[in-house]
Amino acid sequence: MSAATMIQTADDALLDVEHLTMRFGGLLAIDDLSFTARVHEITSIIGPNGAGKTTVFNCLTGFYKPTVGRLRLCHPDKGEYYLERMEGFRIAQVADVGRTFQNIRLFPKMTVLENLIIAQHNRLMKASVFALAGLLGLARYRVAEKAAVEKAKFWLDRVNLTARADWEAGNLPYGDQRRLEIARAMCIAPCLLCLDEPAAGLNPRESLELNELLLSIRDEQGIGILLIEHDMSVVMGISDHIVVLDHGRKISDGDPAFVRNDPTVIRAYLGEAEDGEGADA
Question: What mean pLDDT comes out for the span 154-163?
């Protein structure tokens, strides 16, 4: 793995998934999946329930080891990582892959601000020489702690939660908790942000705000976003690239206009009208 800084353009691959296959005993959950997610793009993975979308995320983030396949991350600053070879905790700590989950996983009894600071725990522990510098109040730890708080405040402002910084996270309205999860993932400074159904349970206004937030993250932070989502207003509104799965196999791969009009997608996922015409996405 090269340590040299890589200069990437919008056409460069950030993540190459090649021949990903995942078996659970006799169940074939992912069947020979290949796709590319590019730098500075939002790539959405869609498909019916049980299509294998979350299994793909679990392979990328180290919860599962793929049966077969290569998962190559091209980090813009650190070089290449082969995620299938890495321990799960190193994928976040070293390769800088951030993630949210279908079910909210905040620390409900911690404050909103504390949830964002604890996301930076690994950097703070390193700066504290595993608590020694923190106990002694050394300058290196004070600097790191101040930086962590400033980053947390920055993301609180970006998701409009500054006024609720001292609230217990579990007391936030549902939509605010969703945004806080994204802010927490951004506090690790990911090069790839994996979002598992971030619009689930949101009302139309909140979904529109989510669209604006994700587009701003893509454009202002310059990272790639990998998105699993059932809300087609979100998917079609913000995606640069869409991969469609059905029973673990890729059935379509292209931009939103291509996918929206692909007859295979209409049949398998979006449904068909009674007169045989494709349903609107």
Answer: 97
Give whole-number Cα distances, 250 to 20, 47, 94, 265, in Å: 11, 9, 29, 10
Q: Other CB atoms closer than 10 Å to residue 203's CB: what's the count?
A: 11
pTM: 0.85
Position 55 in a domain: yes
What tokens appear for 184 in the block? 């927490």
Q: Within this chain, do residues 252 and 237 fall inside the same structural domain, yes or no?
A: yes
List the strands of the sheet with 224-228, edge to edge. Answer: 97-99, 192-196, 224-228, 42-46, 241-246, 249-254
Q: Could you tell me which of 220, 227, 159 has the C-alpha nearest to residue 194? A: 227
167-177 pLDDT, tens digit per residue, is: 999 999 999 99
Domain with 135 in it:
103-189
pLDDT 10s digits, 56-108:
999 999 999 999 999 999 999 999 999 999 999 999 999 999 999 989 999 99
When divided into structural domains, the chain yields a total of 2
CATH number at residue 167: 3.40.50.300
